[in-house]
Design goal:
- It is built from four helices and three strands.
- The protein is mainly alpha-helical.
- The longest helix is centred in the last third of the chain and has 33 residues, at 71-103.
- The chain starts with a helix and ends in a 20-residue tail after the last helix.
Length: 123
């Protein structure tokens, strides 16, 4: 990839603002392909639509190394300041634990690519 060859320390998969452009593929539908092309050369950070624990499971399962949480944190700070942010993060962690428990994953490493089916990339 050009970005890695140019010295990028990570690749971020995001639709930041792209949702306003009709016909643009969703970020999650592109994540698996991007992660495959990146391999393990640099971390792949995903940040589009992470609202619940199951969203983290999906992103990690499709190849993200890490996820970034934006909108829920902004909601938390607007509602409760620093305590609101802490509450949002704690709630997200609880949902992640529950989603992992229900899916049979003991650790994040168990959420290897292919753990879930991605209908958009199946042929």
């Amino acid at each position: 990839m050009v970005a890695i060859d140019a010295g990028a320390d990570a690749i971020q998969v995001s639709n930041h603002g792209g949702r306003q452009i009709d016909g643009v593929p969703s970020a999650i539908s592109q994540l698996q392909e991007v992660a495959a092309r990146v391999g393990h050369k640099v971390p792949v950070i995903f940040d589009s639509g992470i609202r619940r624990g199951i969203d983290v499971v999906r992103a990690i399962s499709l190849g993200a190394t890490a996820v970034a949480v934006g909108r829920p944190v902004l909601y938390g700070i607007a509602v409760g300041g620093v305590g609101g942010v802490a509450g949002v993060i704690e709630h997200l962690k609880t949902e992640l634990r529950t989603a992992m428990l229900l899916s049979g994953a003991r650790t994040l490493k168990d959420l290897a690519q292919g753990f879930i089916r991605n209908k958009e990339t199946e042929h």
